[in-house]
Specification:
The protein is of the alpha/beta class. The protein is built from six helices and seven strands; from the N terminus they run αααβββαβββαβα.
Length: 209
Protein backbone atom coordinates (compact mmCIF):
# COMPACT_ATOMS: atom_id res chain seq x y z
CA UNK A 1 0.00 0.00 0.00
CA UNK A 2 1.43 3.35 -1.04
CA UNK A 3 1.80 5.89 1.74
CA UNK A 4 0.33 9.36 1.11
CA UNK A 5 2.73 12.15 0.25
CA UNK A 6 3.96 14.09 3.32
CA UNK A 7 2.25 17.24 2.05
CA UNK A 8 -1.03 15.57 1.07
CA UNK A 9 -2.95 17.13 3.97
CA UNK A 10 -1.98 20.70 3.11
CA UNK A 11 -5.03 22.64 1.97
CA UNK A 12 -4.98 26.31 0.97
CA UNK A 13 -8.76 26.41 1.30
CA UNK A 14 -8.65 25.09 4.88
CA UNK A 15 -5.91 27.55 5.81
CA UNK A 16 -7.87 30.46 4.41
CA UNK A 17 -11.05 29.31 6.17
CA UNK A 18 -9.19 29.16 9.49
CA UNK A 19 -7.73 32.65 9.02
CA UNK A 20 -11.13 34.06 8.18
CA UNK A 21 -12.50 32.62 11.42
CA UNK A 22 -10.04 34.21 13.86
CA UNK A 23 -9.76 37.80 15.04
CA UNK A 24 -7.54 40.14 13.04
CA UNK A 25 -5.22 40.88 15.94
CA UNK A 26 -2.15 39.38 17.60
CA UNK A 27 -4.24 37.25 19.92
CA UNK A 28 -6.15 35.68 17.03
CA UNK A 29 -3.19 35.31 14.70
CA UNK A 30 -0.84 33.82 17.30
CA UNK A 31 -3.40 31.61 19.02
CA UNK A 32 -3.72 33.46 22.34
CA UNK A 33 -0.03 34.46 22.37
CA UNK A 34 -0.53 38.22 22.18
CA UNK A 35 2.82 39.57 21.04
CA UNK A 36 5.99 38.89 19.07
CA UNK A 37 9.10 38.59 21.20
CA UNK A 38 11.70 41.32 20.84
CA UNK A 39 14.25 38.51 20.57
CA UNK A 40 12.52 37.32 17.37
CA UNK A 41 12.63 40.81 15.86
CA UNK A 42 16.20 41.50 16.94
CA UNK A 43 17.40 38.18 15.56
CA UNK A 44 15.91 39.06 12.19
CA UNK A 45 17.47 42.53 12.29
CA UNK A 46 20.87 41.05 13.05
CA UNK A 47 20.49 38.63 10.14
CA UNK A 48 19.57 41.39 7.70
CA UNK A 49 22.59 43.43 8.77
CA UNK A 50 24.79 40.51 7.72
CA UNK A 51 23.25 40.86 4.25
CA UNK A 52 24.04 44.57 4.23
CA UNK A 53 20.47 45.63 4.98
CA UNK A 54 19.47 47.83 7.92
CA UNK A 55 21.51 48.66 10.98
CA UNK A 56 22.16 47.64 14.56
CA UNK A 57 22.56 50.61 16.87
CA UNK A 58 24.60 53.27 15.10
CA UNK A 59 26.37 50.78 12.84
CA UNK A 60 25.40 50.75 9.18
CA UNK A 61 26.57 48.27 6.59
CA UNK A 62 26.18 48.59 2.84
CA UNK A 63 26.62 45.96 0.11
CA UNK A 64 25.67 48.04 -2.95
CA UNK A 65 25.54 51.67 -3.99
CA UNK A 66 21.76 51.58 -4.39
CA UNK A 67 21.48 50.30 -0.81
CA UNK A 68 23.34 53.27 0.60
CA UNK A 69 22.71 53.83 4.28
CA UNK A 70 21.69 50.21 4.83
CA UNK A 71 18.19 50.78 3.38
CA UNK A 72 16.85 49.06 0.29
CA UNK A 73 14.66 50.44 -2.46
CA UNK A 74 11.75 47.99 -2.40
CA UNK A 75 10.82 44.77 -0.62
CA UNK A 76 7.84 42.44 -0.38
CA UNK A 77 6.62 40.51 2.64
CA UNK A 78 5.01 37.29 1.45
CA UNK A 79 2.65 35.72 3.96
CA UNK A 80 2.29 38.88 6.02
CA UNK A 81 -0.17 38.84 8.90
CA UNK A 82 -1.40 41.90 10.79
CA UNK A 83 1.70 44.07 10.69
CA UNK A 84 3.78 42.90 13.65
CA UNK A 85 6.80 41.95 11.52
CA UNK A 86 6.14 44.65 8.94
CA UNK A 87 6.10 47.46 11.49
CA UNK A 88 8.56 45.95 13.97
CA UNK A 89 11.21 45.04 11.43
CA UNK A 90 10.71 45.56 7.74
CA UNK A 91 9.49 49.15 7.47
CA UNK A 92 12.78 50.24 9.04
CA UNK A 93 14.89 48.79 6.21
CA UNK A 94 12.96 49.51 2.98
CA UNK A 95 11.71 52.69 1.32
CA UNK A 96 8.67 50.80 0.03
CA UNK A 97 7.17 47.50 1.18
CA UNK A 98 4.60 45.42 -0.68
CA UNK A 99 2.44 42.79 0.99
CA UNK A 100 1.13 39.37 -0.11
CA UNK A 101 -1.63 38.08 2.21
CA UNK A 102 -4.69 36.06 1.16
CA UNK A 103 -7.17 37.34 3.78
CA UNK A 104 -7.71 41.08 3.43
CA UNK A 105 -8.78 41.79 7.01
CA UNK A 106 -5.25 41.08 8.21
CA UNK A 107 -3.72 43.67 5.89
CA UNK A 108 -6.36 46.40 6.23
CA UNK A 109 -4.48 48.25 8.98
CA UNK A 110 -1.44 48.57 6.70
CA UNK A 111 -3.36 50.45 4.02
CA UNK A 112 -2.48 54.12 3.83
CA UNK A 113 0.90 53.80 5.52
CA UNK A 114 3.47 55.84 3.62
CA UNK A 115 5.96 53.01 3.25
CA UNK A 116 3.44 50.36 2.17
CA UNK A 117 3.07 50.02 -1.58
CA UNK A 118 1.01 47.33 -3.21
CA UNK A 119 -1.07 44.80 -1.27
CA UNK A 120 -1.91 41.49 -2.98
CA UNK A 121 -4.76 39.68 -1.23
CA UNK A 122 -3.93 36.29 -2.72
CA UNK A 123 -2.28 33.13 -1.46
CA UNK A 124 1.38 32.53 -2.21
CA UNK A 125 0.36 29.69 -4.53
CA UNK A 126 -1.63 32.23 -6.58
CA UNK A 127 0.90 35.05 -6.66
CA UNK A 128 1.55 35.78 -10.33
CA UNK A 129 4.36 38.30 -10.46
CA UNK A 130 4.10 38.64 -14.23
CA UNK A 131 0.35 39.27 -14.11
CA UNK A 132 -1.17 42.12 -16.07
CA UNK A 133 -1.40 44.41 -13.05
CA UNK A 134 2.32 44.33 -12.28
CA UNK A 135 4.51 46.98 -13.85
CA UNK A 136 7.36 45.46 -15.84
CA UNK A 137 9.98 47.44 -13.90
CA UNK A 138 8.77 46.26 -10.47
CA UNK A 139 11.49 44.21 -8.79
CA UNK A 140 12.48 43.57 -5.20
CA UNK A 141 15.76 43.87 -3.31
CA UNK A 142 14.29 41.65 -0.57
CA UNK A 143 11.55 39.00 -0.58
CA UNK A 144 10.79 38.13 3.04
CA UNK A 145 8.96 34.88 3.91
CA UNK A 146 8.17 34.14 7.55
CA UNK A 147 6.06 31.36 9.07
CA UNK A 148 4.18 30.71 5.83
CA UNK A 149 5.93 28.33 3.40
CA UNK A 150 4.86 25.30 5.42
CA UNK A 151 1.34 25.96 4.12
CA UNK A 152 2.43 25.19 0.54
CA UNK A 153 2.75 21.76 -1.01
CA UNK A 154 6.15 20.82 -2.42
CA UNK A 155 4.99 21.55 -5.97
CA UNK A 156 3.46 24.87 -4.94
CA UNK A 157 6.66 25.83 -3.13
CA UNK A 158 8.81 25.25 -6.20
CA UNK A 159 6.41 27.23 -8.41
CA UNK A 160 6.29 30.02 -5.84
CA UNK A 161 10.08 30.25 -5.68
CA UNK A 162 10.12 30.55 -9.46
CA UNK A 163 7.89 33.62 -9.09
CA UNK A 164 10.33 34.95 -6.51
CA UNK A 165 13.21 34.53 -8.95
CA UNK A 166 11.33 36.58 -11.55
CA UNK A 167 10.72 39.31 -8.99
CA UNK A 168 14.28 39.68 -7.68
CA UNK A 169 16.41 42.67 -8.56
CA UNK A 170 20.07 42.15 -9.36
CA UNK A 171 21.77 41.23 -6.10
CA UNK A 172 18.44 40.83 -4.28
CA UNK A 173 17.73 38.34 -1.51
CA UNK A 174 15.02 35.77 -0.82
CA UNK A 175 14.81 35.16 2.95
CA UNK A 176 12.92 32.22 4.44
CA UNK A 177 12.36 32.19 8.20
CA UNK A 178 10.53 29.15 9.56
CA UNK A 179 10.60 27.62 13.03
CA UNK A 180 7.87 25.00 12.80
CA UNK A 181 9.16 21.78 14.33
CA UNK A 182 8.09 19.30 16.99
CA UNK A 183 11.69 18.25 17.63
CA UNK A 184 14.18 19.72 20.09
CA UNK A 185 17.04 19.72 17.60
CA UNK A 186 17.33 21.92 14.52
CA UNK A 187 16.02 20.28 11.36
CA UNK A 188 14.87 20.91 7.80
CA UNK A 189 11.31 19.65 7.70
CA UNK A 190 11.21 19.23 3.91
CA UNK A 191 14.62 17.68 3.51
CA UNK A 192 17.83 18.84 1.89
CA UNK A 193 16.82 17.76 -1.63
CA UNK A 194 13.90 20.17 -1.96
CA UNK A 195 15.92 23.09 -0.61
CA UNK A 196 18.77 22.32 -3.01
CA UNK A 197 16.26 22.37 -5.88
CA UNK A 198 14.88 25.68 -4.62
CA UNK A 199 18.37 27.15 -4.47
CA UNK A 200 19.08 26.05 -8.03
CA UNK A 201 15.82 27.63 -9.21
CA UNK A 202 16.71 30.94 -7.62
CA UNK A 203 20.27 30.93 -8.95
CA UNK A 204 19.25 30.01 -12.51
CA UNK A 205 16.49 32.33 -13.72
CA UNK A 206 16.26 30.45 -17.04
CA UNK A 207 15.34 27.23 -15.20
CA UNK A 208 17.17 25.05 -17.66
CA UNK A 209 17.35 21.42 -16.59
Amino acid sequence: MTSPAPDSHISAADSKKYSQGVDANSNGMLGSFPYVSRVVLQGSKNFLVKLGIGKVGDEKRVNAEEKAGGRIRRAVYCGAAIGRITEGLLLSVADTFDIVKPVSKFSNDLKGKAEVGRIWNVGLEEWDFEGKDVHESLTYDLIWNQWCLGHLTDVQLVLYLRECAKALSEGGWVVVKENMSTKDEHCLSRGERLFSVARRLLEDKTFES
